[in-house]
Amino acid sequence: MKRYEPIIGLEIHVELKTLSKMFCGCSADYFGQKPNSLTCPVCLGLPGAVPFTNAQAIQDCIKIGLALNCQIAENSRFERKNYFYPDLPKGYQISQYRWPLCTNGYVDIEDSQNQKIRIRINRVHQEEDTGKLSHLDGITAIDFNRSGVPLVEIVSEPDFREVEQVRIYAKKIQQIFRYLEVSEADMEKGNMRLEANISLREAGESKLPEYRVELKNINSFKFMGDAIEYEIKRQQELLEKGEKITQHTRGWNENKKETFVQREKEEAHDYRYFPDPDLLPLKIEKLEEIRKSLPELPEQILKRLQSMYGLSYYQSQLIVSERFLVDFFEDAVSLGEENKISAVDVANFLINKNVDINKVSPEEVISQITFKKSGIISDTSALREVVKEIIKENPQAVADYKSGKIAVIGVLVGAVMRKTESKADAKIVKELISELLS
Amino acid sequence: MFNKEDIKKLAKLANLPIKESEYEKFASQLSEIISYVKQLERIDSNQVEPTFNVTGLKNINWGDKVEPSLTQKKSLQNAKMQRNGFFVTKGIFNE
């Protein structure tokens, strides 16, 4: 039996969170809005309407390109991609074909066997989103609020050989969008969408197969993994039977857990791309300024956490998973320095305890670690509760204290110490008692 | 130059309802038009940049400002079919 190797490429679409749409002044924040309430002659494709390019979107697209190590074009243009589908009121989508903003980038990923793989990025280009279709009992309902929302497409080369690599890559790109703050990149809301191209070739063959099957409209990492696995198996069975696979587009049916034919794939020339005469060419200026405005990216932070704080790759990766967690970690580390708590202790605490960092402060984390290490409770808010209880339980001592017998505070401190099995920080307890009784 | 198959494909791409009886006629008309335009090939245009815009302007951009949109009612007012605020078209079944 022949052995086959999957050849997989990924296209990622991401909606930018600009204020207005790509080519008009309608709000781009369409989620949950009344259907067709964020439209105008431009995004409805009415005759005579003239589009303008949103400069913020262009800048965001360039930021993505820079973060993915792309070359940024000096001159760029929009073209019309012509096809008929009800989600497209103009009969064409404004996109980029021959003059994309960003080309020839790469992303390095590391799989679960710690193997480093470089995924080449063919292009990152700017386009507009289409309207949203809902199919119900024989009709199709269209909401054009999404029509014209800035959309960036990131096209990888077919450099993936395993599903796991695709998942790691897609998550990494999602993380980059969030660090750049150009998109929420929420798959469930449809801010980020994936399309995979899959074909198989015989193991040892170096040429790319003559066909590829495109999997469209996948809105979760899990479905994408399932769909690709299914498709690899399906194609393998066909090839083993000696059948030829044609180029086409398939969707994923989550209920049946199988892919299905959507449409025969158009060739690029069928789209009859041509420069949009309504839109003026772009000359990219201030590229260095944009480059300088880039925030520290996950990859750089990953390296910094290892070199600066001595964290392992695994620890660093977990902390980098969210920008907020990185800040939280670094705040806690600098607080911990005074208490002789190492960065590794902080990282371990955050990772192993699975702390909900939305509910606790870096200060609380540090005092919890201090307690764990020394057995001394120095967390003021925890001690305050104990002190309150003691005050309630000792009305006589409280009355004495209030009448001027300050020395009675020793009784209250003693009570707190008994209750905490002598683990409370006596100095803080004393302060709290005087504070609460003053 | 153009045959029936070409016309069939072009009609499909352009979403035009062309009858099969018209294929022949359009094939010859389109061939005529193309061969007329083809005269341009006699000029050496290797050194000429294609013209996509005539104003010479660049970077006339929009500064990411929200402007009022049409109301839902206005947006739908010329729609042939609508329902509950949506434009409606006959079912698209390939999804």
Please give a structural write-up.
Chain A contains 13 helices and 17 strands. Chain A is an alpha+beta fold. Chain A has three domains: 4-293, no CATH class; 310-374, no CATH class; 375-438, Orthogonal Bundle (Arc Repressor Mutant, subunit A), CATH 1.10.10.410. In chain A, helix 6 packs across helix 8, helix 7 (323-338) crosses helix 8 (343-352) and helix 10 packs across helix 12. Chain A is elongated. Chain B has a domain at 1-44: Histone, subunit A (Orthogonal Bundle). Chain B is built from three helices and three strands; from the N terminus they run ααβαββ. The chains are: A alpha+beta (438), B alpha+beta (95). At the A-B interface, strand 2, helix 1, strand 9, strand 10 and strand 17 of A face strand 1, helix 3 and strand 3 of B.
- Count of strand segments of chain B: 3
What class do helices, strands and sheet pairing of chain A give? Answer: alpha+beta
Order of helices and strands of chain A: EEHEEEEEEEEEHEEHEEEEHHHHHHHHHH
Q: Which strands sit side by side, in order, in the main sheet of chain B? A: 2-3
Shape of chain B: flat
- Any idea of the CATH class of one domain in chain B? Mainly Alpha
